[in-house]
Design a protein that fits this description.
This protein is mainly beta and about 120 residues long. It has no helices and eleven strands. Strands 2, 4, 5, 6, 9, 10 and 11 form a seven-stranded mixed beta sheet that branches.
């Protein structure tokens, strides 16, 4: 089993920055990729960014240039640096750890990001 825990959310003014962290623990040896998704009230959950164990990244087109995902494999931790935040970035941000070998996906409980105008 894998446990995923996010941290770093909060309230920030528009134009500000936040860094989210996500740590996976447990049977992490088969985790191949980790990433972030977000869900705003009344909207579907959407991809923010993913990163593989080898460091390949994928971003939602609308967030390229403002958000950066990175990973510390030794710590089983992934980070999401969010800059130039906008009120429309307000959402619950969820971390995901993908075990492609066992075809399992693990989610954290989410961390709230609120951007005030």
């Amino acid at each position: 089993q894998v446990q995923v825990v996010e941290s770093g959310g909060g309230l920030v003014q528009a134009g500000g920055s936040l860094r989210l962290s996500c740590t996976a623990s447990g049977s992490t040896f088969s985790i191949s990729a980790m990433g972030w998704h977000r869900q705003a009230p009344g909207k579907q959950r959407e991809l923010v960014a993913t990163i593989t164990r080898g460091g390949s990244t994928n971003y939602a087109d609308s967030l390229k240039g403002r958000f950066t995902i990175s990973r510390d494999n030794a710590k089983n931790t992934v980070y999401l640096q969010m800059n130039s935040l906008k009120p429309e970035d307000t959402a619950a941000y969820y971390c995901n750890a993908a075990d492609t070998y066992n075809q399992r996906s693990y989610w954290g409980q989410g961390t709230q990001v609120t951007v005030s105008s």
